Amino acid sequence: MARNIVSWNVNGIRAVHRKGLLLPFMEDTAPDILCLQETKASPEQLPQALREIEGYTSFFSSAEKRGYSGTALYTKEEPQSVEMGFGKSRFDGEGRTIKADYGDFLLYNVYFPNGGASPERLRYKLDFYDAFLSHLDSMREQGRKIIVTGDVNTAHKEIDLARPRENETNTGFLPEERAWIDEFLSHGFLDSFRIYKKEGGHYSWWDYKTRARERNVGWRLDYFFISEDLASPLNDSYIMSDIIGSDHCPVAIKIEI
To answer: Is the pTM of this model over 0.85?
Structure first.
């Protein structure tokens, strides 16, 4: 089955909806699966137009803190099962993870923590990284094929941000954050975008305050990682940099599975 899977950090699902951009985007692109991060809303706070979109089943993972974090999944195909979180109460209370089992593969929609608020939040981010990878290792040991998508909140290599030297001491490009992506990939995963694009200049986040998008001074923070056994059915992986509505743009893959 050919699937078009799209991921987008919307920086507030109600905000992008009020701008009149989310539903037209879904209509125009018609993703088979749409993963949203940083929804900043629980289902009861959403209008019916967002809770029930024709042709899709929706799932929401909300943070205990209102107006914070959160993920959503819209899918044309009903998953065999859906879980909110990955079984770690320290992390699951922030609504950062939706795990959908499609039988042939597991899909993880993840809004990874930002480490910028304090040293404690950086520690939380790194601990989240490690706990999540441990969970994925256990799924791989069961022979599962895996897709992980979302806002990872780290640029991996120097080509993944416009100004690497200026940001070497900033969270999102710290050596320990980047090293975790190296470790993650060494556990049998691929950065799908880099299969198709080897050069720099491709970003998925731009700072609002400095109008960085106009100058393409950005960071590639949003990813589709696939387990190595999904490399053959992968047909494309790309960034939808022309889509506005958030400080992030959507990323997407096409895969035959």
So the answer is: yes
